[in-house]
Amino acid sequence: MDTRERYRAYAERVASVSPTYAAWARSVDDALVALLDAVPPTKRQPELLFAVARRLGADPSDPAALRALGREARPALVAALTTATVQANDPRRLAPVVPVLAALSAASDRPLGLVDVGAAAGLCSIPDRVTLDHRVVRDHRVVLGQVASGDAGSECAGSGAGVEGAGSGIAGTRLVRVHTAVAGPAVHLVAEVTGDPPAPAATSIRIGARIALDPNPIDPAAPGALDRLAEAVPPEATDRTALMRDALRATLVEPPVRIRGIVPDDLDRALDAVPDGCEPVVLTTGTLVYVPGAGRQRLVDRLRERDVRWVALERTGVLTEVAATLPDDVDAADPDAFATLSLDGRALAVSDPFGTRVRWFPSTTA
User: Fold this and answer.
1) Is 169 helix (H, G, I), strand (E, B) or coil?
2) In the chain, what are the domain boundaries?
3) Which residue in 231, 260, 272, 262 sits closest to 89, CA to CA?
4) In the list 138, 179, 218, 296, which could disulfide-bond 121, CB 3.0-4.6 Å?
């Protein structure tokens, strides 16, 4: 897919939720295509371009503002794109991740030492501060304990939580409380699930350390932190900004240790920061699309060499080995299969870009 096709596809995907960003994507002309093709491939993402454009003063409500910026401030735009990273850090991506981390926590006698790669301000470093409900479309649940232990015959340590009830207001669905946040500031997420979703967790995720690895980590306590994070969020998405505000508040309770660096180069430095009393777990959510292919493979190889657990929610197809474990009927072009959830390189589920609709695979797939 070339640059122009990428922006056309993005416009179609977001038109229903963000007419302004769809209009910006459709406004990409030959001059902007040439500009984008002059920066590294990992810097051509629409979200990154739009965030940088807003930082440089472009008004997203003006469909012509993007082209004007490209004409009038081309050197500044190219320079900013070359060094920028997307830092929206949407906490909704925790919805598919939380059940996997809950199973890992239940299976370990140590608290988790979470290494959040591409963490920005750490809004996805708070799985323990997420209360998660599944809106189950079908009455299928699986035991996720075998995912945590690697043993298909083991039992789930977190299967004791109950069902809130069937009064979801949607025919054929029921609402299931899958994880309850620890006491204090938290966020509430609801994901629509199909397939074989995991059983509820009996206890909250135990986190002993949080390490935030990012090229430009954001201090959640710094003035303007939310504004910086919201740059990549479409202006219409006020609900997302509100959720990010709640997540930022929860992050401030136990801010992560911030390490400035990239993967795979600085992965060891981040893992070495995990205390000895913690079970290291690396988390990547929407990050690796910005890492060149060779770097992604080096990351995968190093994770295996270090023998640490790895939970990923990444664009479907970005990780070729993970893609090879997907069921044959998964279509990467399906918006509800935009991202793949995996554990240690094996696919567990697919979801829309932000984890609000999740199709869980049978336990034999995991």
Assistant:
1) coil
2) 3-83, 91-360
3) 231
4) 218
